[in-house]
Amino acid sequence: MTHGTGLDRDGCFLREGALDRVSAPFAPVVAELAARLGEHFGPDRLHSGYLYGSVPRGTAVPGVSDLDVLLALRDAPTEADRAAARAVEDRIDAAFPQVDGVGILLFGVQRLLSEPERYDLGWFVACMCTPLSGPDLATRLPRYRPTPLLARETNGDLFRDLPGLRAQAAAATTEAGRTQLTRGVARRLVRTGFTLVMPRWGGWTSDLTESAEVFGRYYPAYAGQMRAAARAARTPAAYPELLDELLSGLAPWLADEYLAVHGAKAPRP
Length: 269
Description:
11 helices, Beta Polymerase, domain 2, globular, single chain, NT_sf, Nucleotidyltransferase domain-containing protein
């Protein structure tokens, strides 16, 4: 049986990144990150750390790409943990012009391994995240396939979040704020559009351009809008009017189609 990209011979997800794929410009960034995590999060707090996104995939562009980090804490994150994460983010962002921002996600180990998160955060850690430090939680999670269940539990909540996204757009009055929101909304729509068709395509990609193209094979009437979203996800400042167009056109259709095809993501506590 043949499978799409991103899967092994058994049709299970291949882990996306690896530390040896980090390109030379970003190697000192990752080294500094590891040092700062050790400084701000002791072994009594930090279970394990992970990279995800373009840096561990080896596709990061100096001056354009951000640094994405996930920390698995020994229990639920506290305000002190969040303050420590912000300190690390600010330190790395200020010290390295090759990264355009740093984002650190914080979760407790219990939540990452919980049954409700098995096909959402659990999948994300096991398949999208590259271990940086500590015991790898992927060894305690199953292997994953591009199934309708995975599609539902990863992106089947757009309908629920759409009112909030529209409210954020209405409140974003500065150019910087709208640009940031455009990037986030566009990325989400492209990834949601891709996972809508992922089980039929039978593979995985994190590349936004490829994701839009794959989606367009199944929904040609919306292919142009999805390609525009993929472009805006990379260079949002170049598309100042697209945010409202996406939220009034592509997004509500996509939310409804997702519900019809895969159903609603189970609410989280």
